[in-house]
């Protein structure tokens, strides 16, 4: 395991500290490719509430979860052990629920308060992501709303998603992959975790020297409830011609 610094950035007093925060975000994006946000406006209770909603959904029988089927064209809906990783050659040991604002959602009859709680959570996440991409957009030479226009939730072609993930209990078999190493294809990811649910490991792309970083050293990122882990994705790196640093990641094999 290698020790790597993941910068911690506070969004407190954002409007008054915008320039300072922008500098911190750019430095983190260009070096680590990962950062942790605090003072972001989403409370620990709200995060726990959303995780409770997620847990309730994944506890449903398969036929109930299947009412929100995964659509390959839009990449929305529920999928079960459906992601085959080129990095491992096997399917990830997880299930996911992908949601866009205008996609098919689970019913509140199956999971009480699912829609109201999740939509409110998505709204708060949108505020945070808009702030981040506006700062990065300006720093990279784009208009402040450049990335926000492309992720306007009122538009039918908006690709912003909320993804809930459930990793079933491991059977302890050696060599079992929870999720193979990968990069995120979007602009950025806001990752929420719960205390004690460790597993995420990272390897900055510029530090990887083997295919999918399978022969490189990954750094564990302990899980904490409250801070948001932000991952710079492939699309943002593409837009700025490699100025930012994409990161390989994944809950590693047991």
From TrEMBL:
<comment type="similarity">
    <text>Belongs to the iron/ascorbate-dependent oxidoreductase family.</text>
</comment>
<dbReference type="InterPro" id="IPR026992">
    <property type="entry name" value="DIOX_N"/>
</dbReference>
<dbReference type="InterPro" id="IPR044861">
    <property type="entry name" value="IPNS-like_FE2OG_OXY"/>
</dbReference>
<protein>
    <recommendedName>
        <fullName>Fe2OG dioxygenase domain-containing protein</fullName>
    </recommendedName>
</protein>
<dbReference type="InterPro" id="IPR027443">
    <property type="entry name" value="IPNS-like_sf"/>
</dbReference>
<dbReference type="Pfam" id="PF14226">
    <property type="entry name" value="DIOX_N"/>
</dbReference>
<dbReference type="Pfam" id="PF03171">
    <property type="entry name" value="2OG-FeII_Oxy"/>
</dbReference>
<dbReference type="InterPro" id="IPR050231">
    <property type="entry name" value="Iron_ascorbate_oxido_reductase"/>
</dbReference>
<feature type="domain" description="Non-haem dioxygenase N-terminal">
    <location>
        <begin position="6"/>
        <end position="103"/>
    </location>
</feature>
<feature type="domain" description="Isopenicillin N synthase-like Fe(2+) 2OG dioxygenase">
    <location>
        <begin position="162"/>
        <end position="243"/>
    </location>
</feature>
């Amino acid at each position: 395991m290698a020790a790597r610094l993941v910068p911690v950035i506070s969004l407190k007093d954002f409007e008054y500290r915008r320039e300072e925060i922008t500098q911190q975000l750019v430095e983190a994006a260009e070096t680590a490719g990962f950062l942790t946000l605090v003072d972001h406006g989403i409370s620990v209770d709200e995060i726990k509430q959303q995780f409770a909603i997620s847990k309730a959904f994944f506890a449903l029988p398969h036929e109930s979860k299947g009412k929100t089927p995964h659509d390959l064209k839009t990449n929305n809906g529920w999928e079960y052990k459906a992601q085959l990783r080129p990095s491992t050659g096997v399917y990830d040991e997880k299930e996911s629920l992908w949601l866009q604002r205008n996609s098919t959602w689970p019913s509140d009859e199956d999971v009480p308060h699912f829609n109201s709680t999740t939509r409110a959570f998505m709204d708060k996440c949108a505020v945070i992501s808009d702030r981040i991409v506006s700062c990065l957009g300006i720093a990279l030479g784009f208009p402040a709303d450049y990335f926000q226009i492309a992720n306007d939730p009122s538009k039918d072609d908006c690709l912003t998603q909320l993804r809930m993930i459930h990793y079933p209990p491991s059977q302890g078999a050696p060599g079992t992959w929870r999720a193979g190493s990968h990069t995120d294809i979007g602009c950025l990811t806001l990752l929420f975790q719960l205390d004690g649910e460790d597993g995420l490991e990272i390897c900055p792309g510029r530090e990887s020297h083997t295919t999918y970083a399978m022969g490189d050293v990954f750094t564990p990122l302990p899980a904490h409830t409250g801070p948001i882990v932000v991952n710079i994705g492939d699309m943002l790196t593409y837009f700025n011609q490699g100025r930012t640093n994409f990161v390989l990641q994944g809950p590693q094999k047991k």
